[in-house]
C-alpha cells in the first residue's frame, strides 16, 4: 500500500483499510506509538480484555522464532471471532517474520507491530509500505496543533473548559511524548475536579513542574552568565517543543522582579540577601541564584535588559518561525552582559 503520511495518520486510524492485516506503527514518539497500536488492536476485536482475542508477543521472541508470528496469526481462538496480535518494539529486524505472513494473510486476525524511529530504507518499513495488505503508520513528536487537539478532546470528555491563556501555556509545556502529555493532562483534570474551568494557576500548580526546572535553569543561567548551563537548558526546552515566546515571558518577568529589587536596594539601601528574603513567591532552591543576580546587575542595566526582552518577545509573536533563534540570541546577550559584569567585579 502507499506509505501513510504523518498528517493522514489519524484519518487512517479512524477508518483502516479492510484489506490491511498487518499494521506497522513506528516513530520517535514511543507514547504515541503505543497509543495508536493499542487503538488499532482494540478496535479489531470484540473484547480487548479477552486473552484469546488479544495476544501480546515480545518483539525479541518473534525475532528469535520468525515462524511463531505466522502460527499465532493463523490460530483459531477458543471461542472463535477475530483476533489481534500486538508485537512490542525490538531493536532486531522482524522483516523475516512478517514476509511469510504478508504472503499468506490470515483470515481472522490482524497483526500490529510497534517499532522505533525507522529510516526510510529500513527493511521492515520498506516491506510493509510495499505490501498490498500492510500499512506503515508514522508517529512523530506532537506539535502545538496535535497537543491542542489532545487537550481539547480530553477535557471535552470530562465536560471541562479551560481559560485561553491556560490552554496556551499548557500546550507550550507539553510535547515530546504522547503518553507523558496525556498523563499530565489527566493529573491536571484530577487537580481541577469540582471546577468547571481550568485556570492558569491550575496549570502552573500541576503541569508547570514538567518543564519548570529547565525554565528556571535557563533563566538563572542567563542572568547569572553561565553559558554552558544556558545552552543545555535552552536546547532541552526547544527539543521538548517549549514555546520560545513563552520562555522569553519568564525571562521578562524575572528581569522585572530583579529591576524592582535592585532599584529598591540602590534607593533605600539594604542588601541583595535581604531583598531575596522578601521575595515570598521565590522557591528556596533559587534564592542563591537570584541573590547572585542582584549582586551582578545594576538597576540601569536591568532596565535596559527588560526593554530588550520586551522587544524580543514581541518579535517572536510576529515571526513564529524565527522565535527560537530570537529567544536564543536574547538569552545569550543577557548571559554575556552578566559575564562582563562579573569580570568587572
TrEMBL record:
Q: Which GO terms describe its molecular function?
A: DNA binding; DNA-directed DNA polymerase activity
Q: Can the keyword Transferase be found in this entry's annotation?
A: yes
Q: Which InterPro entries match?
A: DNA_pol3_clamp-load_cplx_C, DNA_pol3_delta_N, DNA_polIII_delta, P-loop_NTPase
The record ties this protein, via Pfam families, to:
DNA_pol3_delta
The GO cellular component terms are: DNA polymerase III complex
Record field: catalytic activity = DNA(n) + a 2'-deoxyribonucleoside 5'-triphosphate = DNA(n+1) + diphosphate
Q: Which residues form the DNA polymerase III delta N-terminal domain?
A: 24-116
Its domain of life reads Bacteria
Q: What are the protein's UniProt keywords?
A: DNA replication, DNA-directed DNA polymerase, Nucleotidyltransferase, Transferase
The enzyme's E.C. designation:
2.7.7.7
UniProt entry tagged with the keyword Transferase: yes
Q: Which GO terms describe its biological process?
A: DNA-templated DNA replication
Q: Which family does it belong to?
A: Belongs to the DNA polymerase HolA subunit family.
- What is the protein name given in its UniProt record? DNA polymerase III subunit delta
